[in-house]
Design goal:
116 residues, mainly beta, Rieske Iron-sulfur Protein, three-stranded antiparallel beta sheet, 1 helix, 40% strand, binds FE2/S2 (inorganic) cluster
């Protein structure tokens, strides 16, 4: 049932209201679905005026990428071992680690549509 519902809405994505208020060099974590029922957390990051979306699950050892000010104004950080990830590509920075999972996001009129 849950997969059927996901498939139904996958084509249109979900609307995240108020993303236009997210300041440059900052990030905000949101819940997509119920985390206790297969949902996920996504970190929305604003870099270079554009919005990017990373899965909060860190690809290193399963920590959670946190939100708030981005490191050096452009990198999302997992506090478990302080690995940094570039929201534009998901790539790890200065460490050998898989990239963080990215999601497609499009912003228009101060709101965003997210495909996660
Ligand atoms: S688990 Fe995220 S940096 Fe190690």
């Amino acid at each position: 049932m849950l997969d059927w519902l996901r498939g139904l809405f996958r084509g249109r994505g979900i609307v995240i209201e108020g993303t236009g208020k997210l300041a440059e060099g900052h990030s905000k974590k949101i819940d997509v679905g119920d985390p206790l029922a297969g949902g996920k957390q996504v970190v929305l990051c604003r870099v270079g005026g554009k919005l990017f979306a990373l899965d909060a699950l860190c690809p290193h050892e399963g920590g959670r990428i946190h939100d708030g000010p981005l490191a050096e104004g452009k990198y999302a950080v997992c506090p478990l071992h302080n690995y940094k990830f570039d929201p534009r590509t998901g790539a790890s920075v200065e460490v050998a680690c898989k990239a963080a999972k990215r999601y497609q996001v499009a912003e228009e009129g101060g709101n965003a549509r997210l495909w996660a």
